[in-house]
Amino acid sequence: MEDIPGDSGVYMHILYRRSNPDHFWLYVGQALVLVVRILTHNDKAHRQANPSLHYHIWDSASDIESVFVILAKHHITQNASPDDRFILNFQEMWMACIFQTMTPKHLAEYLPDDISKAWAGQHLNVVPPIWQGFTDNISVLNEAIGGTEAFTTFIKSTDPAIRAWAWDLRYAFHDLRNSPNLSHRSYYFNIMLRNCNLAEEACDRRKIAYLQSVLHGELRIVMGGNDGQNAHRVSCSDFEFTISRRLQLGVKVGDEVMLQFQLTETPNPEMYATKASIRDPASRLANDGEKTVMIMNSLVDALEGVPLSETKAMPRRWYVTRQHGTSKKDVVYTTEDES
Q1: Do 217 and 329 belong to one domain?
Q2: Label partner for 1 (CA 20 to 30 A): which of 42, 66, 82, 319?
Q3: pLDDT, tens only, 210-246
Q4: Distance between CA atoms of 284 and 265, rounded to whole angstroms?
């Protein structure tokens, strides 16, 4: 490697086994001081203290060879502006795209559709370089990495070394649950709580998107009974609607009917919840009873994209919650706002 003290730049790290030089891994990186960064990489104690896919592959066999190649260099001072430093992000990203060192998910996002992605998933850049330095927000960084989808790609990788790293990471994380170190256990449960909250938010977004699709109509199956005792009904997510026999529609259990929500900007004279007041969102959705109003209020919230966390805090609302670790559901009706 050329001696370039003090220079900033972008580099490629090539790893391969002497016993099988045709099988190699590439990692693209950047540094404000290239020489210092490469010396840090070469420090095995640093690698052991900062586990990553890159370092796992490097130390996965005794005959791994390591070669650093400088792809671009600049003179950027330590007190340079963020804009000056971001040039390294763009150059690193460009090289990661050219050499296809990122995950399949990220190459699909950043490369044109007609470009062959033959090396997707074979190399070692987990996070798109374009994101480096822009944010410390954990949820944003998780999205940048690719979340569960990207990690599943590593778990199922055809490369046994990458697959081993992913499984080791998964096992190491879950081992924290029983760690004698309280801070380790707290970290585990905080992460699991965050993941549960993220999963609940994702579920809410899917539910809202599905309910909004019914504004355009969707075929549903009639349930209930044909014996005159049980009502005919159709369901949509957690919501159920009774088909009045007085309408004499001639439907029977198992029939396919078109369900479509008719949501208006002003109170609808054909509102489903007939006891809804003008303050209730349900008054704009075309059974008697106060609880029906609450259910329809929650449905209108979903149709208008209101997150479930906000709906739960509003008066005259209804929602279903599931007890952790069980399939049991609890139905909650929120009380009238006395203000």
Answers
A1: yes
A2: 82
A3: 888 888 888 888 887 766 666 788 888 888 888 777 7
A4: 7
109: CB partners within 8 A, 6+ apart: 128
* Any domain includes 199: no
Consecutive H or E run containing 74:
strand 64-74
Q: Take residue 127 and report the two structure tokens written for it.
A: 């996070």
* Residue in the structure block whose two tokens are 């008719």: 262
Integer Cα distance of 246 and 161 in angstroms: 67
Is 80 contained in some domain? yes
pLDDT in tens, 132-165: 654 444 444 455 445 556 666 767 777 777 777 6
Query: Does some domain include residue 188?
Result: no
Range of the domain at 34: 8-127
- Predicted structure pTM score: 0.47
Nearest by Cα to 217 from 200, 234, 203, 196: 234
Angstrom distance (rounded) from CA 94 to CA 75? 19
Q: Which residues contact 150 (CB under 8 A, 6 or more apart)?
A: 103, 105, 106, 126
SS3 category, 25: strand
pLDDT at position 107 is: 86
Q: Nearest-CA neighbor of 29 among 135, 128, 143, 141? A: 128
7-25: burial string, b at 16+ Cβ within 10 Å, e else: bbbbbbbebbbeeeeeeeb
**Cα(273)–Cα(275) distance, rounded to whole angstroms?**
6
pLDDT at 15: 95
Per the CB < 8 A criterion, the answer to whether 53 and 127 are in contact is no
Number of domains in the chain: 2
The answer to whether residues 119 and 19 belong to one domain is: yes
Which two tokens mark 219?
């075929």
Question: Which amino acid type is present at position 26?
Answer: L
pLDDT at 73 over 50: yes
Max Cα-Cα span within the chain: 89
Closest by CA to 260, choosing from 289, 233, 236, 231, is 236
